[in-house]
Amino acid sequence: DAGVIQSPRHEVTEMGQEVTLRCKPISGHDYLFWYRQTMMRGLELLIYFNNNVPIDDSGMPEDRFSAKMPNASFSTLKIQPSEPRDSAVYFCASSSPTGALTDTQYFGPGTRLTVL
Amino acid sequence: AQSVTQPDIHITVSEGASLELRCNYSYGATPYLFWYVQSPGQGLQLLLKYFSGDTLVQGIKGFEAEFKRSQSSFNLRKPSVHWSDAAEYFCAVGARGGSYIPTFGRGTSLIVHP
User: Which residues are CB-neighbours of B70 under 8 A, at least 6 positions away?
Assistant: First the structure.
């Protein structure tokens, strides 16, 4: 399996521009997570989906952030308009909890976003 | 809600020395516990996890961790550190039942001196 795939790996944009980050989860996984990692705040859960449905978006910092999962193999995280404080590494992870056990989250390599 | 604390932001060890990274959690019942490692420029990779049973858990890359309920701890250990172990280490705690979504600690940065 190719693992969780994220694109682009690096994104540099100017303040005010729209940014779209993409994620392809591991096939068969029914949970998908978006995280943001910064030096100041560590690893923050932004939103997660179960079977393509957003379950908890309480971590999304503000209305400029939105996430979609149109099908089981694709998700996007969009920032519009972007601001310098959005600069961070954004990770996508997927997992497939089974029964009473919580499965491992498998992380993608991340997208390093720089907003100038 | 569960929470996890990694009290050490940085740990420096010499290659070949033993290692212990601390993790304390807060949760009303027996939690699920995880250790992840993040190498520079990479995503997080699971080292080991505890769900139930034997409180000493073996993981990949020679790591182990011990769940101590009385101390609410899940410390990560390795008897002999290699230079390639230099990375960021994250402890995570998940609640039983409900969403299973783990909460991550702030991480401990491991520096290995030759």
Answer: none
Residues of B within 8 A of A7 (CB-CB) are none
Query: Cα–Cα distance between B20 and B31 in angstroms, integer?
Result: 21
Three-state SS at B69: helix
Q: Residue B28 pLDDT more than 80? A: no
The answer to whether the CB atoms of A42 and B94 lie below 8 A apart is no
From A109's Cα to the closest Cα of chain B, the distance in A is 4
B43 closest CB neighbour out of A100, A101, A108 = A108
> HSE (CB half, 13 Å, CA atoms) of B74?
31
Residue A100 above 50 pLDDT? no
Number of alpha carbons in the 13 Å side-chain half-sphere of residue B76:
30
> How does pLDDT run across A21-69, given as a tens digit for each residue?
999 999 988 889 999 999 888 899 999 998 999 988 989 988 999 999 9
- A47-80 burial string, b = 16+ CB within 10 Å, else e? bbbeeeebeeeeebeeeebebebeebbebebebe
For the cut 80, the answer to whether the pLDDT of residue A102 exceeds it is: no
- Please give, rounded to a whole number of angstroms, the shortest distance from the CA of A17 to a CA of chain B: 25
Neighbours of B41 (CB within 10 A): 10
Over pLDDT 70: what percentage of chain B?
A: 96
Which pair of tokens denotes residue A20?
């779209």
Q: Provide the pLDDT for residue B98.
A: 58
